[in-house]
Amino acid sequence: MNMATNRNWETIKEFEDIKFELFEGIAKITINRPEVYNAFRPETNMEILKALEMTRERQDVGVVVITGAGDKAFCSGGDQNVKGKGGYVGDDGVPRLNVLDIHKVIRSLPKPVIAMVNGYAIGGGHVLHVVCDLTIASENARFGQTGPKVGSFDAGFGSSYLARHVGQKKAREIWFLCEQYTAKEAEQMGMVNTVVPLEDLEDTTVKWCKTIMKRSPLAIRMIKRGLNAELDGQRGLMEFAGDATLMYYLMDEAQEGKNAFLEKRDPDFQQFPKFP
Ligand code: S0N
């Protein structure tokens, strides 16, 4: 059974390992390596990073969806074929773990990011859905970590943020046992928002995106920042504060400071209300 893909997705930019498409305000990043169950190599992650950066800048993007090609896997994590000493090694011979940059960018992106999980979300692929803002899964999806079984681990968001979803005991079980969980089990644990038949996965995701895009983008942005700040410490507060500054700059009170400077006069801040 395939996902319904009857929409006219327009290619934003051609890449080698990913598809990057747009449909009515929804940017879709599809990891396109089905022969390795959409495992990522350093080049894949560099492409995802470039695509995410473009979604940040583009005014015609309201929501970002991340998924995998085919009906077997969302993402099976790091490509074991290119794992060498020191990490995953790209064509340039440099070992790097640039997947953590993706986690940071997804959390920083001032737009919602939805994981559309169409099959296995395993290892680094599981972490990828965990760091997204929402997860919509098909009934055939399977979730799990493999790190302690295959010689890796993610003690960053892949552990701490996971524990915020499922609780400390379950997070430890997921990592210590390295078992797989059905989509329904993942939903019951609180790490998946909804589960639908595979043929309805894209329709449901597009419907959720369209509902989100009817809401105030600035309000959504501030909610994401606030929820992140709770876990992200000083960095989270910095991003929350950055958006507060953005809003302040939009106010007449901030404009008055700048205008007074340019007009070489004292600013008149007393004209502005002092809210209780
Ligand atoms: C997904 C699984 C469970 C599917 O099992 P199934 O149905 O039995 O299919 P297979 O025959 O196993 O797989 C089908 C084909 O796909 C290839 N393949 C699958 N996964 C990978 C992969 N990760 N790399 C390369 N190839 C893969 C199979 O080889 C097979 O190909 P053919 O048909 O040609 O034989 C099952 O496949 C599975 O368990 N896969 C491995 C999952 C895994 O262990 N992934 C790596 C986990 N580690 C990471 O992801 C770490 C990376 C990371 O994100 C990270 C993050 C933060 C900090 C550190 C790290 C870090 O790098 O350590």
Low-confidence stretches: none
- From the alpha carbons, calculate the radius of gyration and give it in angstroms: 21 Å
Termini gap: 58 Å
For the record, the CATH class of the largest domain is Alpha Beta
Pfam families: ECH_1
Keywords: Lyase, Menaquinone biosynthesis
GO molecular function, one term: 1,4-dihydroxy-2-naphthoyl-CoA synthase activity
Function: Converts o-succinylbenzoyl-CoA (OSB-CoA) to 1,4-dihydroxy-2-naphthoyl-CoA (DHNA-CoA).
What does this structure look like?
This protein has 276 residues and is α/β, with parallel strands linked by helices. It has two domains: 10-214, 2-enoyl-CoA Hydratase, Chain A, domain 1; 217-263, Lyase 2-enoyl-coa Hydratase, Chain  A, domain 2 (Orthogonal Bundle), CATH 1.10.12. 45% of the residues lie in helices and 20% in strands. The chain has helices spanning 42-57, 99-108, 124-131, 147-150, 157-166, 168-177, 183-189, 201-214, 217-249, 252-262; strands at residues 10-14, 18-23, 26-31, 63-68, 73-75, 83-84, 87-89, 95-96, 113-117, 120-122, 134-138, 142-144, 181-182, 194-196. A seven-stranded mixed sheet has the order 1-2-3-4-9-11-14, with helices on both faces. Strands 5-10-12-13 form a four-stranded mixed sheet. Helix 1 packs parallel to helix 2. The protein starts with 9 loop residues before the first strand and ends in a 14-residue tail after the last helix. The mean pLDDT is 96. Residues 36-37, 39, 76-81, 97, 99-100, 120, 122-124, 127, 146-147, 150, 152, 154, 158 line the site of o-succinylbenzoyl-N-coenzyme A. O-succinylbenzoyl-N-coenzyme A binds next to helix 2, strand 10, helix 3 and helix 4.
